[in-house]
Amino acid sequence: MFKIYLDKNSPRIVINFFGIKLKLKNKLSMFLYQASSHKHILEKYVDIKKVNIATGELRNAQLELKSFLEYFDELSKRNNLKYWLDSGTLLGAVRHNGFIPWDDDIDICMLRDDYEKMHTILLNELKNNSNWYVREYFVNPTNWQIRIISKKFKQNIGFDIFPVDKYFDSNFTEQEQNNITNTIKKASECLKKKYSHAKNIKIIDVKKDIAYIQRKKILYNKIPAQNKPALFWGIDFPCDAKQLIIHYDMVFPLKEIGFEGKTYPCPNNIDGYLKNFYSNYMEFPSYIINDSGLRCE
Question: Between 202 and 289, whose confidence is greater?
Answer without folding.
Answer: 202
